[in-house]
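#onboarding

Welcome to the new folks! Below is a worked example of what a typical request in this channel looks like: someone posts a single protein sequence, and someone else replies with the predicted structure as tokens. Don't worry about understanding the tokens yet, we'll cover that in week two.

Example request:
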Amino acid sequence: MNITIQHGRLIDPANGIDSHTDLHIADGVIAGVGKVPDGFSADSHINAEGQVVCPGLIDLRARLREPGGESRATIATETAAAASAGITTLVCPPDPSQPIDTPALVDLIRHRAKQSGHARVLPLGALTQGLAGQQLAEMATLKQAGCVVVSNGLQAVESTQVMRRAMEYASSQGLTIFLHAEDPWLAAGGCAHEGVVSVRLGLVGIPEAAETIAVARELQLIEQTGVRAHFCHLSSARAVRMIARAQYDGLPVSADVAVHQLYLTDMDIGYFDTQCHVRPPLRSQRDREGLREGLKQGTVAAVCSDHQPLGPDAKLAPFPASEPGISGLETLLPLTLRLADEGLLSLPEAIASITQRPAGILGLLDHGEGGTLATGARADVCVFDPEPYWELRADELQSAGHNSPFLGWELKGRVSCTLLAGELTYHTCD
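Example response:
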């Protein structure tokens, strides 16, 4: 089907476009921007007057729970929620229930996503077998199965020797490695940032050093092996400064931040609000400001949801015994837009942090497979109205997980249309 999206403000950071112009789509790819291409005839028109047209959002971290956790969520429910939030590509990290260490598991996840038809899912291949941190996974085989990135998820690789060999293997295959920087011994038993709040509440703290020590180790190994590495969901200002120095020194590293870390601090735990139990933990206001400054300066390239849908009972236990995680797909766009409203970023910069920059980290830009509206690129498109205010309510969430500290918040900006390879997967527009 040929589609023309008319009268919208088209923002495509990858190509430096920010203008009121039309977008033409033919057979699932971008046929042209502005002037109607020769021989093009639209079968359908979408009126985007007063709205923003941008590349489909790319979320660098979202747990979909399937296979293994279908009682909480499924690929179908979470990709449908993603489509309603303007997200067209989800990166699914491995975890113990789905280590993604065999081609069969990669194929299963991709097949289920294709069946649902709402969003594209990119599985992260395992760094070690079963994520146990002992034996290296068959990264070459995982690459052949379609994995462009490898990771050990939240599971620590305790042996420095194993991590070094894993980085060397990944580098030899041209694979990017996604790193969760956390020292397992310093973090053991902790559930909140080590500081005034954790002491007042009697909670076991996780010190900032749990992150910075791990970052330091990985940076040394990255320098030695030359592997392309990406640090996931940083939480501390000091870690941001370490990444900035590494980038200045020419190391091939990038970083992202979970969007909730840009708004919440350990003070939001209040009196044991389990909705604020996350990993890594919410840290101090100084850390939050450091993360924001890192995003503004470009040290932190991307913003992700770190989506973790949980069952209704997961947050009912006492704070230390509750499960960490936030259901974040449907707040990714409005909370990122809020950064522009607050003046931290321009609107194109905010959009770049959830489109162009994640696509660059994943290596999608060069092939036109996401993060761009260039002619010939795949037509993954998000259309949203930046003006309406709305209240986040549990009964209106599309995700199977309703665990969010932002329930009751007034948010701004709503998606009206999402297109995946030129097919409407969500729409409230004309």
